[in-house]
């Protein structure tokens, strides 16, 4: 699905912290959505967790620096980090270039699949959420 | 929105205030200066690599890492910090990061103009004078549910101490950092010949922010905020937070946007070659070459550095210039070829 200039692949889940989640069995691949990478601008540094670290639903996983601004990214589901995209240490702009592909950040072994119900999947719901923020981008 | 004029606070407290207020949901402007100097490093910096911690210890200068982006800075009473804090949902503020900087840089730009200094915002993310010198550095970040933007009006700046608190690979390069800062960073004192009264600057700054953000309600520091500051001081100055390793450490020193000091080393057969370069838009503006290799006649080392000024940092151009220099001067560097010096320059980061 396209929302203005930003891409939101239909098969993914989204949260209000602007993370996306791709579910394959009990493994959830996590990244930040296209709209967020646009808001952030070119990413200079990313703070990645360690494999084995555990996060609660909505908890901050790490930080991202862009143009002297320090942002955060959050866990869309609870669970244990089973893989980290180490390529981002050398080139964090992969998040800008390919937010849903090479710019994925971590893979989480999901602790509670019921949490997926708290994420956005319905295109209308996603549109409504993103448009509420797009207005602020357009106005300023 | 509120305004909290904290005057001058000792040490880290000038930086702890916004960390605490952001977590407590404060929305408004904080104006503060440190009453005694301190050094602050950006979140993605390694304090051990960026700052001469021994010098700071010997001179009683506290060092803290902040939850804000940007590089190492030296803060003292001649700077007036403006710290804007708002909830992410507050629709007065832009969402796009570069727009936030542009939007909130207008009040400090107007403040400088009010005192007769023509300034403008330049991406990313400085306030500069009309001749391109940086006169305020800015940074920001998400803290708690808040967004925080910070910057500082430079009434005056202690270039010498700033060059001393930074860690450099070789003392020879400290002077280059000093000179580069002096050339690229300016202050009210330098622009005007004197410093306007602090209270006047604070008043104008507050008025300009009020014009942008709406009327402020004046408030004072609450016991709750002080408690939070005390709690955060323990965390933000703890070795656990201060020396926590981040995955990618910036090694160069950024003087202003577009001007960087880069350090490079290369091990040649004839010894280690070190370089420190001031680079602006890929052009070497100044360079120091040192190491444990042999070069004779020795006086030609300075000539080599002079030759390399205004050269583009591009392999073939560097190598050709160094080869010409060898040919013209007959300089001898056993075990070190022009290509090795080129590599030591290219290694700069």
Largest sheet of chain B: 8 strands, mixed
Q: At CATH's second level, what is the architecture of chain A?
A: Beta Barrel
CATH topology of the largest domain in chain B: BirA Bifunctional Protein, domain 2
N-to-C order of helices and strands of chain A: EEEEEHEEEEEHHEH
Q: Tally the helices of chain B: what do you get?
A: 13
Count the E strands of chain A: 11
The counted number of beta strands of chain B is: 16
Structural category of chain A: alpha+beta
- Under the CATH scheme, the architecture of the largest domain in chain B is 2-Layer Sandwich
Distance between the termini of chain A: 25 Å
| Fourth-tier CATH superfamily name of chain A | RNA polymerase II/Efflux pump adaptor protein, barrel-sandwich hybrid domain
What letter string, H or E per element, gives the SSE order of chain B? Answer: EHEEHHEEEHEEEEHHHHEHHEEEEHEHH
Shape of chain B: elongated
Question: What is the C-level CATH assignment of chain A?
Answer: Mainly Beta
Low-confidence stretches of chain B: 247-251
Structural class of chain B: alpha+beta
Radius of gyration of chain A: 14 Å
Q: Which consecutive residue ranges of chain A, at least 5 long each, have pLDDT under 50? A: none
Question: What profile does the largest beta sheet of chain A have?
Answer: 6 strands, antiparallel
- In round numbers, the mean pLDDT of chain A is 91
Number of structural domains of chain B: 2
Describe the structure.
- By secondary structure, chain A is α+β, with helices and mostly antiparallel strands.
- Chain A has a single domain (2-129), classed as Beta Barrel (OB fold (Dihydrolipoamide Acetyltransferase, E2P)).
- Chain A has four helices and eleven strands, in the order βββββαβββββααβα.
- Chain A has helices at residues 34-40, 87-90, 94-97, 123-139, and strands at 2-3, 6-7, 13-14, 19-24, 27-32, 43-46, 54-55, 60-66, 69-74, 79-84, 106-110.
- The longest helix of chain A is centred in the C-terminal third of the chain and has 17 residues, at 123-139.
- The mean pLDDT of chain A is 91.
- Chain B has an eight-stranded mixed sheet with strand order 7-8-9-10-6-2-1-11, with helices on both faces. A five-stranded antiparallel sheet of chain B has the order 12-13-14-15-16, with helices on both faces. In chain B, strands 4-3-5 form a three-stranded mixed sheet, covered by helices on one side.
- In chain B, strand 12 (253-256) and strand 13 (259-268) form a beta hairpin.
- Chain B is of the alpha+beta class.
- Chain B is built from 13 helices and 16 strands.
- In chain B, 37% of the residues lie in helices and 28% in strands.
- Chain B folds into two domains: 2-242, BirA Bifunctional Protein, domain 2, CATH 3.30.930; 258-346, CO dehydrogenase flavoprotein, C-terminal domain (Enolase-like, domain 1, 2-Layer Sandwich).
- Chain A binds chain B through residues 38-41, 44-48, 63, 65-72, 89-90, 92, 133, 136-137, 140, and chain B through 42-44, 67-70, 91, 93-101, 103, 123-125, 138-142, 246-248, 250.
